[in-house]
Structures are given as C-alpha cells and as structure tokens.
Amino acid sequence: MKIAKEKITIIITILIDVIGFSIIIPVLPFYISSFGASTFTMTLLFSIFSLCSFFSAPLLGSLSDKIGRRPIMIISIASSAIGWYFFAFAHSLIWLFIGRIIDGLAAGNLSTAQSYLSDLAKDKQERTQNMGLFGAAFGLGFLIGPFIGAILSSYSHSLPFLAVAILSTINLIGAIFFLPETKHKDHTNTEKISLNPFTPVFSAFRDNNLKSRYLIWFLFNLANTVQQTIFAIYLFDQFGLTAAFVGYIMTFMGLIMIINQGFLMQKFWLKYFKESKLEIVFTLIFSISYLLMAIPNIFVFLLALLPMILGQSLLRVIMSSRASGIAGIKRRGEVLGIMSSIQSTAAIIGPLISGIIYANIRYLPFLIASATMFMVFIIFKYFCPRIGEINDDDLPIAEAL
Fold this sequence. Notes:
mainly alpha; 80% helix
C-alpha cells in the first residue's frame, strides 16, 4: 500500500505538469494574440521556460541524489503553482514571461518523478514498466489538458491556466502530506555538488557510457520541439482549424499515448521485442511521420499523427529507462537531471528555429524535424556502439540498477 501511495502521488504530479504543458500548445497562440503578440513571441515563451530549466534541472537532479527526492519535488511543485498563477492573472506580456521564468527556475518535477519511479523498481523490467506509467500519465495529461483548454478557453483564454494553477496547489498539499522519501542513506551520492549549472553537462561529454545517449536525446527532443511549437498555429494557418478543434486532435493523441504506454508497452512491445530494436525501428518511423506531416494535406497530416505519437511515446520511455539503468541508483537523479537539461537545451533552440523559419515556409519545421530524427536513426544503427554505448539489454539486472 505504501508503494501504491507513492506511485499515485508521483503520477498525479506528472499528470498535472503535462496538463499544464498540453494546455499551452492549443491555447497559447490565441491567448497571446489578446496581448498583441506575434508568433515569434509565442516561441520565446516556450524558450524562456526551457532556458531557466536548463540551469535548474541538473542542480535539482544532483540535489535529489544528495538530500532526497521529496524536498526537491515539493519545491518544484510549489514553483509550478506560482508560475501558473502569474500566467493566469497576467495583464501584459511581461507577466507571462515572469510566470514562465518562475516555473522554469525550479523545473525539477518530471526528472525527479522519473527518479522516484526508478527507485521503486525491483528489477530492470519493473523499471521500464514504471517508466511506462510515467508515459501513461504523460499521455493522460495530453488527453485531459487539450480538452480542458478547448472547453475553458471558450469562456476565457486565461481560465485554463487558472485551472492548472489550482490543480498544482492541490498537488502541492498532497505531496507535503502523502509523498514519502525513497532515497535512503545507503544509496546517497556523497560527491560534492557543483553550483555551476554547466558542470554536470560538461561531465556528460566525458561519460563514455552515456554520451551517445545524451546526443541522441538532444536530437530527439530538438525534433519534437521544432514541430510542437508551431503545431497549433500551423493547423490554424494551413487548414483553418480552431483552438477547440486542435484541442480535440491533441486529446486523440493523448488517448493513443495512454493505450501505447499503459497497455501495449508491457503486453506487446517489451514482450516481443528488444528495447534496442524498438529504438532503431521507431526512430525511422518517427522520421517518416514528420516527412508526411510536411505535405499540405489535412488527411495526410492526420494520418501521420498515429505513427508519430506511437514513436514519440515509445521512444521517450525506452530512452529514459535505458539511461536510468546504465546510471545506477546512486547517479540516477544526476543523469536524469542532465537529460532534463539536454531536453531544455533542445527546447530553447527548437522553438527559436520554428519561429524564425515558419514565417517564410510553413512546412519547413516538419522537414527539419524529419531530418533530425533520421540523424538519430543513423546514430542508433551505425555509430552508437562505436562511441561508448552500453547495451542495457545485455546488462545483468543488478548492474543495470
């Protein structure tokens, strides 16, 4: 029962985080238009959060290894709640940016939650299954968030963000009372923590066991953020779809995520295929999906969404799980924090790329995303084993943990 309560609290935290993020994608273009802002300003709002989390995530990840998961999780949830209140009650663009900065400066929710779920795993398979729960919560957030945004934005474009702020406050109270510590003294990282946010990132390049995965993780997230940033505005500009319709499309995407990560992950993908093979195959599928989305036809675009969301949801879980297994429990928070920082770096660059090129060629961000994922496929298939990659499929369970 104790473990069940831990997982429930963690999953709720993940869920609320993703609800907030997924509300932004369909609603933000219409929300910022009330402030007279441009599409490029919208991409800056994505980038400023990622810039702040780039500095905070590795430090918070290392701190969670040092002092425990619980205090870091509580600080991160509180920061999210405050940030969303600023966002919801903003009267000018500067308040929108302040809200995203506050949230980003303590953006350790998801990486710490991943460490929590990894701590609770008894073996490699359960670790991947727990990451599947993480992904299922991610999918459920994408199911609920756009639906909330579609309905509440019809009354007020700020109302969805107020709803997320209130949910984050409730989540904070629940974490304070129900979230125990999983990081025990015998698993504590005794290494000195550097206050330089670039230190753990620089150390990533010296880690022969993980540096190839860090590179792949960067390219994977760069491709995602390039297309996610302009997803809603592209559907509006190219096909005339409203915020509500975009919200319903994203709700469908969230449903596919839940089915894939909550059921197919354990019952099909991990049962019949090696994780290393899934990474290679779905990276190629992902690249083809983005290529199809560049075709200016609504039916082709919608058809490409299915393999795209299958690949994205599956790869995110497997990549995180294998990196976590290679890291081991003493460095798990540090490594997942570095991955969060790398993801933030991609999320800084991706929106800026989209914002700059979208005004000239609408479909070009999808072609860039496709080319980036094809690079990941090439690295996985031909270069990954040659640059220090450890095949986690071959690791004994004890060593993987």
